């Protein structure tokens, strides 16, 4: 079998690795695989569309792959530069380099005369090079190839002295000195750029939004208890990253399907998120976020993507903090419990509505969004020197034919279309709170397994899919959001890689003197780390238990405080475990009076 992989970002590299190592795990002949990358280096977005001091918002524990772990001295959140170095080491460790063709841009993919696919590509390092062809049985699309900056149009924007997309932003020096900088977009890139701007010798920094955002903590909140007594936080203590902290037991693992498919889980976490944010920071709209909240119609855990770039938030909230914290209720709350408030040293970022237009003199006319930020700015004459468009990207697939499926049209686990499973799309999902690379690893495992042995994957029930999908409004730009934990566990179940209770206990008991409790506790209390799903199943790896009882045990054990142990572990396990137990006991009766609806199965 020959397989082509397009794109050398994390998704492409992990797919290539599972293809060339499949014969070591599965009953198959070695697969010949070649990866095509249009750039002259691997790394994808992390290498080619990053900027000074860029840092991953997902933790190293979650983002790194199951069988190639980060260094022990790496911080919880890797820099983009360090992550690219990690990916290069990954290629070296698994000997991927001989299978990677850099500076090779795929121009088209067509059906072969005798079946399969014909990939045409050109050498971008050689001027006027002639197209070459690669015939293959299957194709993994791991890049949009044409990743184009999304450029909104505004009347009069040509009157601004300097306008550029965040794709062209590289360093603080681009802000200049004593300039007014307007950043459009409050995603994680927009937040990063705003934070860098306000900590540069700029005159003023403004950040425009359309309909708010939710600034989420990267770590489990570790607030000061009774600060009124002079208690202070320990600056040397770093709580566990949020994306590594949620307990999977009875949340995604061993959940009865009636509870899993019900909105109760979403409602619980919606309440938990809002109440926790309010309790420790005073605002339900984000951690220490006093302005720019998502509109109530959109603000629900089942609909939103969390913004984990939170360094800019203290600067955005600064002009509004004193007024919002002045009420009696807020004074009482903050005297009992309060997250640390960063000192902005008098600097602030003006949150602003979305621009309506720019005048001939370069003055920005903001849309009246009936929010406090419009009231604050409406009488000011603001003439930006620089406008930075942090407005995202659009991905297109010019090498595919019009009849080829695209990520938005996939019907099987968001990986392939049932009409042609030989074309897999890896990494084209967006978790609300989590990371794409570990999900891409699980997607690659399932797709390669299905390529080699469709019968071992079995029938994939579409009824399992709604439970892991986000539920955005029909008008939302992004319709491919998933819950990281639910989606990861579903893919593991599809591959028969999720351990049962007895197996977890046996695996722990059989691993050293302390494995009997460490492995079961990591399985129950930790997030759905990919290493959990390498202990058994078709991709079983002997090193998985060591990762669980070593590195990941230390991560779970480091989680501390009321919010770590009680709200993220004890309470959901008690509530959902009890409900699931009752449902399992009552299931025969429920099936008689309320049978489960099943859709047509997909192979």
From TrEMBL:
It comes from the Eukaryota. GO terms for molecular function: flavin adenine dinucleotide binding; N,N-dimethylaniline monooxygenase activity; NADP binding. It holds the Pfam family FMO-like. The chain crosses the membrane at residues 573-594. InterPro entries: FAD/NAD-bd_sf (IPR036188), Flavin_mOase (IPR000960), Flavin_mOase-like (IPR020946), FMO-like (IPR050346). Keywords: FAD, Flavoprotein, Membrane, NADP, Oxidoreductase, Transmembrane, Transmembrane helix. Belongs to the FMO family. This is Dimethylaniline monooxygenase. It comes from Lasiosphaeria hispida. The lineage of its organism: Eukaryota, Fungi, Dikarya, Ascomycota, Pezizomycotina.
